[in-house]
Amino acid sequence: MNLYIRYFDKEILVYSVEEALDFLRSIPEVDITPSMEKDIREFASNDMFFPKRYKVRPRVYFIMIKTTAQNMDDFKQKKAVRPMVPGMNDRRDLIASVTTKLTEIREGWYEGSLDFKRVVMVPNTGKHEYRDTHFEVRCKAVSGMDCYNRMVEYLRQRVDARSQFPSAKGKNFKFSYLGRWKEECDL
Q1: Taking residues 109-124, what's their average pLDDT?
Q2: For residue 82, what is the DSSP state?
Q3: Are 111 and 137 in contact (CB under 8 A)?
Q4: Rounded to two decimals, what is the model's pTM?
Q5: Which pLDDT value is given to residue 187?
Q6: Is the domain of 48 the same as that of 110?
Q7: CB of 111 within 8 A of CB of 178?
Q8: Range of the domain at 28
Q9: Are residues 108 and 68 in the same domain?
């Protein structure tokens, strides 16, 4: 992994941490402390591709970027864009599958569970506070999203209006399809 370093109009593409430190030491305004050196070494050795900036003095920084570019021209022309992390595509696919599963039309009985923040009054103080509340229901719906909407609509009529409900796509809502007919799902 190579490092691109820039401080105002001074820039360089280096192939090791030692070269990077030598370049930074050659700039009189930049004072390389032991903690900064340690941080630069850690930045270069980890797998993260985010750019990092280091403070030289108030409102003055130098920037360091990891790259796979072999020379400055490749870096400037963005030929060596960072490789796609395999987990990112999987995560996008997972989000897409959750959305697809949620909106899939499948009429019948659903069991849904929802964790939400319910506003309740504390009797001793007369003040209100949020309490984590778990709510489960079996209802007839046409999709997971319809099950969620029915649950939230039911709760909105019965709890304080300031209560907070999670997104249907989040981890605080779960549902399962029980079957098309009431007899199938043993209600």
Answers
A1: 94
A2: P
A3: yes
A4: 0.49
A5: 44
A6: no
A7: yes
A8: 2-76
A9: no
